[in-house]
Specification:
The protein is an alpha+beta fold. Helices cover 36% and strands 17% of the residues. Helix 2 packs across helix 3 and helix 3 crosses helix 7.
Length: 337
């Protein structure tokens, strides 16, 4: 029997989660994908979005490279089933389903390409600083070369300090970060973030029966200041509120202070406000089951149209371009009812 090749297309958002936003609620269903930078749109299925090559790849002797990808699958499937259970009952999830949903939210929060790229940029900057420091003083350089050789590193004597200094200052090198190292950091961070999420009080937000509906994005966990203030924001900070779309009909809202009821039947303005947050937290794509969705703009509910790629027109409210992705929406208390 032919051995199955390891999976290389890794979804950082589970297809079964994205399926909750398709036209028929399945992975084979389709939704509109709105490009936030260009305002253009196209239709596709979850298979073709929120995916990167070898995103979860590991190179460990005796284990397949898709070890992590396969290990995460049961956790993701359990969470998606918990979402389905919650939507079916219309009630706040039981303890097991609640824990599964929080695990999925946490996994998406720590394991996504946007967090990874930002973390790698910081690591790269640190390496540049260390290199510049070593290149700033010949005695310092020679001291660290000597220490490295004592520890078994093979550094040719033919490389002079002057050559090394030019090499570093001209940045004649490329720094590669491998997914395995990123995954180690992300999974170590998981427990801390999960605890922070668990300290919030969560509510199930239900969209109105006659609409509008919730949308999703490639970075769906949106966090905002309650007061509408600007500046750095984080999941651990008080006076913040978090929204995570569970499906086109439901979302999860978490806060530290002044919690809402377990189940809140949202008004159209609440849904439009949450959609605004999802849009402004997106990096590249917004996913909508319908050709249009509601969004809170300039103090009112506006209809955002997702045009087919053959159509040269696009929404007058897009592109949103370079606006910050986290905490951009400054509206106050969007879920207060």
């Amino acid at each position: 029997m032919k051995k199955k090749s390891p999976a290389r297309r890794h979804h950082y958002l589970p297809q079964s989660y994205l399926a909750r936003f398709t036209d028929n609620g399945t992975k084979k269903g389709q939704f509109f994908v709105l490009e936030v930078e260009s305002g253009r749109a196209f239709r596709t299925s979850p298979k073709n979005v929120a995916v990167e090559l070898d995103f979860n790849r590991v190179d460990i002797d005796g284990h397949p490279p898709d070890l992590i990808e396969n290990a995460l699958s049961p956790l993701e499937q359990k969470a998606v089933q918990a979402i389905a259970n919650t939507i079916a009952t219309g009630k706040f999830p039981n303890d097991d389903d609640y824990n599964s949903i929080l695990n999925l939210i946490c996994l998406i929060a720590v394991r996504n390409p946007f967090f990874r790229k930002a973390f790698n940029r910081a690591r790269e900057q640190t390496i540049h600083i260390i290199g510049d420091l070593l290149a700033s003083n010949k005695q310092l350089w020679e001291h660290h070369v000597r220490k490295a050789k004592e520890n078994g590193e093979n550094i040719p004597d033919s490389i002079s300090f002057e050559e090394m200094k030019r090499f570093i200052e001209k940045r004649n090198y490329k720094i590669d970060f491998f997914p395995e190292g990123n995954l180690r950091v992300e999974l170590n961070l998981f427990d801390n973030i999960l605890q922070i999420l668990g300290e919030r009080t969560w509510s199930l937000i239900i969209a109105p029966q006659d609409g509008p509906e919730f949308i999703c994005s490639d970075h769906p966990l949106a966090i905002n200041w309650k007061s509408g203030r600007q500046g750095p924001i984080g999941l651990e900070l008080r006076e913040t509120e978090v929204f995570f779309p569970l499906s086109r009909r439901a979302g999860f809202y978490g806060t530290f202070e002044y919690p809402l009821k377990d189940v809140v039947h949202a008004k159209p303005g609440n849904v439009a406000t949450m959609n605004r947050r999802v849009v402004f937290n997106a990096e590249k794509h917004v996913f909508s089951p319908l050709k249009s969705f509601a969004m809170w703009i300039d103090g009112d509910i506006k209809t955002i149209n997702c045009w087919d790629k053959e159509n040269q027109e696009h929404s007058p409210y897009f592109p949103i371009g370079t606006q910050p992705s986290t905490g951009k929406a400054a509206e106050k208390g969007g879920c207060t009812v």
